[in-house]
Design brief:
Blueprint: E1 9-10, E2 16-17, H1 21-37, H2 44-67, H3 77-94, H4 99-121, H5 127-144, H6 150-153, E3 159-160, H7 174-198, H8 200-210, H9 212-217, H10 222-248, E4 250-251, H11 258-271, H12 276-296, H13 301-315, H14 319-332
Antiparallel strand pairs: 1-2, 3-4
Helix pairs in contact: 2-7, 2-10, 2-11, 2-12, 3-4, 3-5, 3-10, 4-10, 7-10, 8-10, 11-12, 11-14, 12-13, 12-14
Length: 333
């Protein structure tokens, strides 16, 4: 499995290698300030797209923890996004729970389901695991249409949500606030993920991916960490699904079809496996490339999308993050 240069790999002493902490922190602060300033610069539509990119970035980071850092393939993460989205929608619509409080609810529920799903999935590997997660992605949208629960899910019509206003009387319209809120959530989860993968859990996940036999001999509980990776990945994806539901103000079963799961997997490959920055590059691809393809050809947008995806994978075998890292190395010389 090829990874880009901002991968967290193990050095000879068993520590996780990563870029200098102060440098990374400085770059994050600068990027956060630049992105926050866009709140008062960009039109509402582009702020909405920016919020979608940040939300998808959270989901792609979660999938990258599972696939890029732990080596497990999932074709069903669209199902966890659906669980997160419907958790937020049902909690807001029927429980009167504030929109911001639905994010931890969605995360905890998806963490539990993902962790429990990880245990039986441990008996599978490679294509068998991909097939099991594929079944999850196919079955859940149909379950959401089940007439016995459509009182809660809205059936095929879904649930329409209200756009929240900015809190504390802040002079921001709803689109500006939701973009800023998405940025805060994304920064928090990227910070959590960075520290998680730099620590003991990160070392265990990478060791399980690279040398599972050696890791087991050194006392790493392979089953536990693989299930944990599934749970953490599901948590990230569920929070992303809840955030997207709040941004779009709507959830429906057809929004979470198998294509969504394929798009997430495509995003981490295009962005760069086992890469933090790759999650953002992949999110940009997911949000903007389909629109670009449609603007090129309205009669056959998916054909254009397929050609662009093949060209991207062929020209960037290590993903966009790998290309950026290679250019950075050349410039440093």
């Amino acid at each position: 499995m090829t990874a880009s240069n901002d991968t967290l790999s193990l050095d000879r002493d068993g520590r996780v290698e990563a870029p200098d902490r102060k440098l990374v922190l400085g770059l994050i602060v600068i990027a956060a300030l630049v992105l926050a300033s866009l709140t008062w610069i960009l039109p509402n539509y582009y702020l909405f797209l920016g919020g979608m990119v940040l939300s998808y970035g959270i989901a792609l980071l979660g999938l990258n923890i599972l696939t890029g850092y732990n080596g497990q393939i999932s074709l069903g993460h669209g199902a966890f996004m659906a669980i997160g989205g419907y958790t937020a929608a049902i909690a807001m619509e029927f429980g009167g729970i504030p929109y911001w409080a639905t994010l931890p609810l969605a995360g905890i529920l998806c963490l539990t389901i993902g962790y429990l799903f990880g245990f039986p999935a441990l008996r599978l590997g490679g294509f068998q695991l991909a097939l099991a997660t594929f079944a999850l992605a196919i079955a859940l949208p149909q379950f959401l249409k089940w007439k016995n629960i459509e009182e809660w899910t809205g059936g095929v019509q879904g649930i329409v949500l209200m756009k929240p206003d900015a809190p504390f009387g802040m002079p921001l319209n709803p689109d500006q606030w939701l973009y800023l809120f998405s940025l805060i959530v994304a920064l928090f989860f990227f910070w959590i993920g960075w520290n998680l993968l730099r620590g003991r859990i990160g070392r265990a996940l990478v060791a399980t991916r690279d040398q599972s036999i050696a890791a087991s001999a050194m006392g790493v509980n392979i089953a536990q960490y693989k299930s944990l990776a599934f749970g953490i990945s599901a948590l990230y994806t569920g929070v992303s699904g809840a955030l997207i539901a709040i941004l779009v103000q709507y959830v429906s079963p057809d929004s979470y079809g198998f294509y969504l799961s394929v798009s997430l997997l495509t995003g981490i490959v295009v962005g760069g496996l086992a890469s933090f920055t790759g999650a953002i590059y992949g999110a940009l691809f997911i949000v903007f490339v389909p629109n670009i393809a449609e603007s090129i050809s309205k009669s056959a947008p998916w054909a254009i999308y397929g050609v662009m995806m093949i060209a991207t994978v062929y020209l960037l075998p290590t993903g966009a993050a790998g290309l950026v890292a290679a250019l950075r190395q050349k410039l440093s010389k």
